[in-house]
Amino acid sequence: MNISQQLMKHEQSRSNCYKLLAACFYGPQKEIFLEEGLFENLSLRLKQTCPDAVVFSEKMGRAFLNYSNEDLLVDYARLFVGPNELIAPPYGSVYLDGKRRVMGDSTMEVVKIYKDEGLAIDENFKEMPDHIAVELEFMYYLIFKEIEALGKSETDKALNFIKTQELFLDKFLKKWVGPFCDKIKAGTDNEFYSSLADCCAVFIKNHDYGSLAEVLKGEIALLRSQ
């Protein structure tokens, strides 16, 4: 008894979208991104999971070629790092807890969810637990574990990972990614970062996880009946 290959492929593509978008929110590494075909891979995965976002991933790829790595680093720092006031703080608590707070109540909730899933922030990692890249990578991890469980027909485990994904999206990412991406677009004329903001916002907003969860639950119920 196996989950359909089409659905497994869809979930693998969905997990990779999160992983690739997360990479874009770390400091740019032009040579590595181009060697690994990051933008081509992202566009391919989005075609399978969120076609509305493909136009923006393709714009990202074209725009990336027009900037030196130094130019990208300068704009990255202006938007997300400092030393001056951040144009687009990449931390969920700034948007969820108000008053541009970091390490607020919502951050502690995120850390608890990580711990509940057996994860901990590496002591050498210098960013906040609710950094946009960390939260996107957490979604990648949850889908990876879901796929792993489905491959072993461990349906209860798979459903738990599905439930955690839905919770994390609805309570955290979906609530703050939109305002965060709006700040990026308002604060830069860098076509790469403005296209990244559009791509991320559309992917998260249009990600009809409720419908996907029902499909997955339907396939699991079918497996159990066989």
Write the layout of secondary structure elements.
Elements: H1 5-24, H2 30-35, H3 38-49, H4 54-64, H5 69-81, H6 92-96, H7 105-116, H8 132-151, H9 155-187, H10 191-205, H11 209-225
Helix pairs in contact: 1-3, 1-8, 3-4, 4-10, 8-9, 9-10, 9-11
Describe the structure.
Helices cover 73% and strands 0% of the residues. It is mainly α and 226 residues long. It starts with a helix and ends with a helix. Helix 1 (5-24) crosses helix 3 and helix 9 runs antiparallel to helix 10 (191-205). The chain has eleven helices and no strands. The chain has helices at residues 5-24, 30-35, 38-49, 54-64, 69-81, 92-96, 105-116, 132-151, 155-187, 191-205, 209-225. It has a single domain, classed as Orthogonal Bundle (TorD-like), CATH 1.10.3480. The model has no long low-confidence stretch (mean pLDDT 89).
As for the CATH topology, it is TorD-like
CATH homologous superfamily assignment: TorD-like
| Helix proportion range | over 70%
Instruction: Give the amount of beta strand, in percent.
Output: under 5%
Features:
single chain; 226 residues; mainly alpha; TorD-like; 11 helices; globular
Q: What's the quick description here?
A:
The protein contains eleven helices and no strands. The chain is mainly alpha-helical. The longest helix is centred in the C-terminal third of the chain and has 33 residues, at 155-187.
